[in-house]
Amino acid sequence: MASKLGTDLTVGSIPRHIVTFSLPMLIGSFLQTAYSFINAIWVGQFLGTGALATVTVSFPVVFTLFGIGMGMTLATNILVSQSYGAKRFDELRRVVDSSTVLIPGLGVLLTVLGEIFTPYILRAMDTPADIFDASVGYLRIFLLSLPFSFAMFAIRSMLQGMGDSKTPLYFQLVSVVLTTVLDPLLIFGHLGLPRLGLNGTAWATIFSQAVVLVALMAWLHHQKSPVAPGWPHIRHLGQETRQTFRIGIPASIQQSLVSLGMVLVTGIVNGFGETSTAAFGAASRIDQIAFMPAINFGMAISTLAGQNMGAGHHGRVREIFTWGCLFSGAITLVISVVAVLFPEPLLRVFTTDAAVIGLGISYLHIVGACYVLFGLVFVSNGIINGAGATMITTVISLLSLWVVRVPGAYWLSRQLNSVDGVWYAIAFSFFVSLTCSMAYYFSGRWQRVLVGKRHASPAAAEPKPDPAKVFANETGEA
Fold it and tell me: What letter does residue 404 receive in the DSSP assignment?
């Protein structure tokens, strides 16, 4: 059932829901990746190596902070999907009020801390002296976008929790187009605008995020959406805020430590010289594209599972798992086959250096062959997260990264006296993640997490009401 109040994913064809719900998110990911490529071209080709290095130095900081925000919004998505699936719209409103205060407020807090500690962070990262001042200035400007970005993350997660992945895509498209247009205008000072150089890309991001956020909020109020942000009721900020912290903090820690772990793995690769680093960078671009379907299927499965668990339909959750494995496994298997059979043409998109391509081919033969494992991990993790057991997926990720990948990369690369040891460690970490995640899923313990934290839903035993009528009755809308 689809309406301006969302899509009921507890009825109807599961494979159709998976495809129609995940496709807009996948398109959105491709849009964001395309913009990052375009932005890199503007910076690298027209502003020089120093500007590109400045952005590169700032990226780990930004990625870590975004990880914190995405972790907290995962909690919002889970709570909204469970409440919506159970047709508890009073509870849904409490989640919205809590997230409206908590997540943008977290963005403001991180912005303030970032403005204060940016020089110390960049100095601790051994930022080269010739780009240090520029990096401090750029990062301080970019951090001003965090409250807007976090608010967008929150609204997107709430809409997706109600089964609406199209509305976030439309507004994301507007944001990407607006930022892409503003980048060259502010970089070079066209149309009478100030010439801001590299900082123009940061200001373009701030402006586009703010404009699109206001437009999205206005649209949601016009549509009378139950997730339209409003002035929160103080009494709504108790239990749901605690639930958001309980689910979101582990996910935020996971995202932050994963990004830190990747920095350490990159450092190990750097020890084998710039050719290895370049090969890792080029192959990682292919990883980014290969992982995109799995990540988006995982988010879709989390929402489908959340709604159906909220409604008490555990049988449908098992169907979601089966269909998720078929879809995600099949797509990543195809990508694996392409990466293993045709690695050189893929790598030549990013480099023509024969030595770099040689190491990149080795990477894709080892890691690319295991993409399908990564795709399946996101299916079982999606079910576990949908139940609210984010602590489990966090433990699995940290085990895979900090116990297997980072130490394994260091030890194997020394034992083999080759960067191939890093590639083997990455591949093996996928296997460990899959084994642990599937073991927890098949244990069925994720169902106890849901039952223990959320009260039983009457929706499992009674006919499902029309969401629009329920929401209108509970909110007093005519």
Answer: I
Residue 463 is predicted with a pLDDT of 42
232 φ/ψ angles, rounded to the nearest 5 degrees: -75, 150
The pTM (predicted TM-score) of the whole model is 0.76
Q: Which one, of 395, 397, 382, 390, lies nearest residue 453 by Cα?
A: 390
Query: Tens digits of per-residue pLDDT, 414-458?
Result: 999 998 999 999 999 999 999 999 999 999 888 876 544 444 444
Quick check: 412 and 406 in contact, CB under 8 A? no
d(CA 449, CA 351): 48
Task: Compute the radius of gyration of the chain from its Cα atoms.
Answer: 23
Burial 236-256 (b: 16+ CB within 10 A, else e): bbeebbebbeebbbbbbbbbb
- DSSP string of 298-345, one letter each residue: HHHHHHHHHHHHHTT-HHHHHHHHHHHHHHHHHHHHHHHHHHHHSHHH
DSSP 352: -
Domain parsing of the chain, residue ranges: 6-460
Helix-helix angle 49-85:371-386, to 10 degrees:
40
Structure tokens at 57: 């130095």
244 neighbors 79 (Cβ within 8 angstroms): yes
Task: Report how far apart, in Å, the C-alpha atoms of 379 and of each of 70, 83, 111, 201, 299 are.
Answer: 18, 22, 34, 36, 9
Q: Are 375 and 328 in contact (CB under 8 A)?
A: yes
Structure tokens at 373: 């494992």
Residue 353, token pair as written in the block: 């250096």
CA 470 – CA 95 distance, rounded (Å): 17
Q: What is the pLDDT of residue 465?
A: 44
Alpha helices in 189-235 (DSSP H): 199-222
Query: Is residue 86 a contact partner of residue 311, using CB atoms and an 8 Å limit?
Result: yes
For residue 332, the model assigns a pLDDT of 92
Mean pLDDT, range 285-302, rounded to an integer: 86
